[in-house]
Amino acid sequence: MSTQTILIICYITLALLVLLSLKHSSLARPFKLGLVVITSMFYMVTWFHILGLLGWATPDPTPEAFRVHWIHIEEPNKAKGDPGTIYYWVSALDDAELMSGPPRAHQILWTIEAAKAAQDAKKRLDAGELLNGRISHNVLDGEKPGGEAPPAGKGQSPEGNDNERPAFEFTTVVPPTLPVKTVPIQ
Questions:
Q1: 93 and 159 co-located in one domain
Q2: Tens digits of per-residue pLDDT, 53-64?
Q3: Phi and psi (nearest 5°) for 172?
Q4: Residue 55 region, left (φ>0) first, then alpha (ψ -120 to 50), else beta?
Q5: Any residues with CB less than 8 A from the CB of 105 and at least 6 apart, and which?
C-alpha cells in the first residue's frame, strides 16, 4: 500500500471520527476519550508516513536501469554506530533507455565495494559525463572461486536477501548525434 493511500485513509477516518463525535455529543465520556486516543494514533501514523512525501531517500530497491543524476557517500562512523550509507539520485529508464519519470533518491548500505563503485561514478559525473546505471546480477558476495561460501549474515540487499547485494554497473551515455546545420550566407 502506498504512502499516499495510507494518508488518505487516515484523514478520511479522522474526518469520520470528528463528524461522529459532533453528531452524537451526548456520548458517554469513556467513548469520547476513546475517540481522542484513536484520533491521536492516526496523527502518529500520518507523521511517520508523511516522510515518504517529503523527499527522503527511499530504502526501496533501485530500478533495474536508471540515469544517475548525483551520488552522495556517507562513510561509516564507528563512534556514532552509523554503518554508512550511499545515496543515489536516479531516474528510471524505459526499454528505449529514455528517462521515464521524475528523479528519486535511493539509499543503499555502505560497503567497500559499493563505495568504490560509487566514488568512481561520482568522479565521472564531476568530469561532466552522463551516466546510466544498471543492476548487475553478478553478486558481490556470492560464491567465491573454489566453492567457498561467504560468511552468513554479512549484509542484506535492498531486496532483503542475505549475502546478495547487487553491484551497479555504470556506463557513459553517448551524446546524441545531431544533423549538420547549414549556415546561411549573408
A1: yes
A2: 667 788 888 899
A3: -75, 135
A4: left
A5: 55, 56, 57, 58, 87, 88, 89
CB-count exposure of residue 108 (10 Å: 0-12, 13-18, 19+):
buried
Give the C-alpha separation, 131 to 125, whole Å: 7
| Segments forming the whole domain that contains residue 40 | 3-53
Question: Facing residues of 170 across strands?
Answer: 133
Using DSSP, state whether 165 is helix, strand or coil: coil
Q: What is the pLDDT of residues 159-176, one digit of tens each?
A: 444 444 568 889 999 887
- Indicate whether 179 belongs to any domain: no
- Contact between 86 and 117 (Cβ < 8 Å): no
Name the pTM for this structure: 0.60
Q: Which helix (H) or strand (E) holds 89?
A: strand 85-92
Highest-confidence segment of 2-6, 68-72, 138-142: 68-72
146's torsion region: left (phi>0), alpha (psi -120 to 50) or beta? left
